[in-house]
Amino acid sequence: MAHVFQVTVDSPTPHDLADWWAEALGWTREPSDEAFIRRMVDAGHAQESDTTEHRGELVWREGAAIRHPDEPAAPRVLFQLVPEPKTVKNRVHLDVRVGADQQEAELARLLGMGARELHRGRQGPSSWITIADPEGNELCLS
């Protein structure tokens, strides 16, 4: 039996990090349903404190999600609010496959967006560049 899943990333600033990853991957941020949020608050199913504004839009405070723009059934990435910053190495990370001929250009683009290069690796014919997003979450460009 196949299962549908999402990858969840803890973040003290989930909306900002979702924006960064959406731009980094060329994905889209899931739109906020402001009318639904307002109905939930008005009906007492949520409180104003459960919401916030992000770039002029009413959103749920607890998180934001992104997904592939052309494959709506593909797994999504959810950025979930946590109070603390990242402090240790990730046990799971994303490998973003850009192709060997695009690694340096993609590295330069992501560094320009606030990423940091951590190290470079090679195994046989395969090579990768490990970087960190603005909150320190590791990802590899391969």
Outline the fold blueprint.
Layout: E1 7-11, H1 14-25, E2 28-29, H2 34-42, E3 51-54, E4 57-60, E5 63-67, E6 77-81, E7 94-96, H3 103-112, E8 116-123, E9 126-132, E10 138-141
Parallel strand pairs: 1-6, 7-10
Antiparallel strand pairs: 2-5, 3-4, 5-6, 8-9, 9-10
The quaternary organization reads as: single chain
End-to-end CA span? 30 Å
**What's the story with the biggest beta sheet?**
4 strands, mixed
Rg calculated over all Cα atoms: 17 Å
The total beta strand count reads 10
Order of helices and strands: EHEHEEEEEHEEE
Strand order of the largest sheet: 1-6-5-2
Q: Overall 3D geometry?
A: elongated
Task: Give helix % range.
Answer: 10-25%
The overall pLDDT, averaged over residues, is: 95
Tell me the fraction of residues in β-strands, as a range: 25-35%
Number of helices: 3
Regions with little confidence, pLDDT below 50 for 5+ residues: none
Secondary structure class reads alpha+beta
